[in-house]
Amino acid sequence: MASSAREQHQNIDSLSDPFARNALRVAYHVRKYSVLYVCGALGAIALALFPTYTGSTGGNQSVAEGQGIYGNKGAGGQGGGALNGTSTVTSGTGAPAGAGATAASGSAGAGKSGSPGSQAGAAVTTATSGTSGASNQVLVGRGVTRGGFTCAPGVRQLPFSVYADPCVAKYTGSNGGSTWNGVTAKTITIAIRHTSDSTGANEQATNAESEAAGGQTYETSESYIKAVTAYLNKTIELYGRQVKLVDYSGQGNYTNEELDTGQAAACADADAEATSVHAFMGVDFEGLYEWGPFAECAARYKMMTPQGAPYFPESYYKKYDPYVWATTMNCSMIADEVGEFIGKQIAPFPAKFAGTDGATNLQNAPRKFGTYVPNNAEYQECVNQTLQIDENQYHVAKNREDQYNYALDISQFPNDTQRAAIQFAANKDTTIVLACDPISPIFLTKDAFNQGYHPEWLIIGVAFDDTDNWAQLWDQDEVNGHLFGLSQAASTDELLNPNGEAGKALKAAGVPFNITSVTDYYEMLSIFDQLQAAGPDLTPANVAAGTHGLPVGGPGAFGTWYYGQTHTAIVDSREVYWLGNQTSKADGRPGTYVPIYKGKRFRAGQFPTGQPPFYQ
Fold first, then answer.
1. 225 near 281, Cβ under 8 Å?
2. Residue 555 — φ and ψ, nearest 5°?
3. pLDDT 10s digits, 399-435
4. Which one of 283, 374, 428, 435 has the lowest number of neighbouring Cβ atoms within 10 Å?
């Protein structure tokens, strides 16, 4: 790991994943001040890399089926309303003003589903909910947007964006007023929860260490989020409303919630946000994402969590439909992609990129896979899904599969990785599948090198293992020439292109351009996309229908977005390999991922068959 403050700043500030940034800041801080902390507490912060909540309590939440403005169901692979078409959406109003209590019981948004894949110019009629019965048109693909941009077929609400919704003309009709709790004729309230430990010693020490190294604190990030929100309020169509961010000081403990504890306090916070703050949505101060205990409780109070439980299986989101969503890919989809990639391109061929294990030559031996994965139930479910795909569809024998389940606890990382390296080497595993956080490979690759074990290293694109900045921290003697796999992200230099989408938006918003602000922009844009897609009658059911009807977004710096009938945005991956001696365009340091197939991205069902041209 980096030794100087400057090196630490470069490592932290170049990471776009907020959970990865926090974990590395803490890792640096703890190394410096380790005598001040109990090791067991470190695992709580490490868990920000992955959610661990099991969703063990509570039940399904349901509201009447809703309707969005793009055709509802996302049929035909391009969303209900294709980007290149035009349509007129006739929208009824929701519950009358002051009907928040009725709306919260699930009666608002009881619209009749429109026909998916509506043709250009067709009218999609939403049944009215409430008493006013007003009917107002949302013009898709024509007119002038509220941001002043000319709207036409194929144009996004932000014309320079590949992720913004298809454009709509500035809306001048009625929006139905209070269509749901947290919604009025003029505002949409989103609560920013500050948990009880958000200003505690750990957070303050982490911020101090980050600031000393030149990084961005959560306080700075929140200032970016508020400025980005102000810009999107002016440009995204919210039908006469504005997003209002309200800071809320809760009693929940963020660290405990990462550990799947603190349920009672999390529920108390969700209750307060819904009934006192009157929030339509809730996000967290420490990186926007809320974890399982809070997201589940928010669903009980029929409040949305637009960035919740990242990398969880799709089954989790369906359980709490229509309330919990995420930009990150769900791990059910990840499992499908990884299973196909390994089954078609890796398992049928010998370990071409392996080295030796002591005196044993692993190169060109039949591939045997050792998966390094967290031991929580959600990730176990998805890894098992991958194994079943490879066994049943691609006839990979069980004796070619090995696995080490580790605890997401920084204090245990060195012991777990050492034991895993010993296990993998003893079992003659040729190919290590890194289904893990990005810190563990720092230790795991060093442990493997120290014992003379040189397998192939296969990434699956989670938790920003696929970015230059993290892989540069891994043992380069171990991974150079041996590291390859899938990347959900675009290249790091594309993400940090000041002339790219985020750069243009942040300049317009008056926000400094850095990795923190870039991440904040994309995560807030995805929330605003959902709000526009819902239409004037703003309810969770209509947000769901509208989101499912959105067309494909991208590919761009944040991959390709397409919710379809899922609850997560990113849907595809590219294939990459690691060159440790080549300079990264992102940070000017040695080590970068190089794409194959000219950077083409693949979804499940699209991966080519045959040996991939890594290291050619």
1. no
2. -70, 150
3. 999 999 998 777 789 999 999 999 999 999 999 999 9
4. 428
- Residue 563 in contact with residue 527, Cβ under 8 Å? no
pLDDT tens by residue, 220-269: 889 999 999 999 999 999 999 999 999 998 888 877 777 677 889 999 99
Mean pLDDT of the 267-273 span: 93
Contact 522, 229 (CB under 8 A): no
Percentage of residues in the chain having pLDDT higher than 90: 62
Single pTM value for the model: 0.80
What are the DSSP calls for 481-541, one per residue? Answer: TTEEEEESS--HHHHT-TTSHHHHHHHHHT---SHHHHHHHHHHHHHHHHHHHH-SS--HH
Look up residue 412 and give its DSSP letter: G
- Residue at 64: amino acid letter: A
The DSSP code for 392 is H
Tokens of 520: 């904040």
Strand ranges inside 280-416, DSSP E = 281-284, 356-357, 360-361, 369-374, 401-406
User: How far is CA 544 from each of CA 53, 80, 346, 424, rounded to the nearest angstrom?
Assistant: 23, 13, 37, 44
Up-side HSE of residue 230: CA atoms within 13 Å toward CB? 12
Burial 542-570 (b: 16+ CB within 10 A, else e): bbbbbbbbbbbbbbbbbbbbbbbebbbbb
pLDDT in the model for residue 181: 97
Whether pLDDT at 21 is above 60 = no
Q: What is the C-alpha separation between 589 and 472, in angstroms, rounded?
A: 8
Assign a CATH topology to domain 331-487+573-599. Answer: Rossmann fold (3.40.50)
Q: Where are the domains of the chain?
A: 1-326+500-550, 331-487+573-599
Assess contact for 582 and 593: CB atoms under 8 A.
no
What phi and psi, each to the nearest 5 degrees, are found at residue 281? -135, 155
Instruction: Enter the tokens of residue 361.
Output: 């030559």
**How far, in Å, CA of 433 to CA of 105, rounded?**
45
> Cα 381–387–388 angle (5° rounding)?
85
Q: What is the maximal distance between C-alpha atoms in the chain?
A: 80
β partners of residue 556: 559
Which string of DSSP letters, residue by residue, matches 198-246?
TTSHHHHHHHHHHHHTT---HHHHHHHHHHHHHHHHHHS--TT-EEEEE
Place of tokens 């795909």: 389
Beta bridge partners of 361: 356
What pLDDT, on a 0 to 100 scale, did the predictor assign at position 59? 33
Query: Residue 373 forms beta bridges with which residues?
Result: 405
Alpha carbon distance 523, 517 (integer Å): 10
Give, to the nearest 10 degrees, the angle between helix 201-212 and helix 218-235: 80
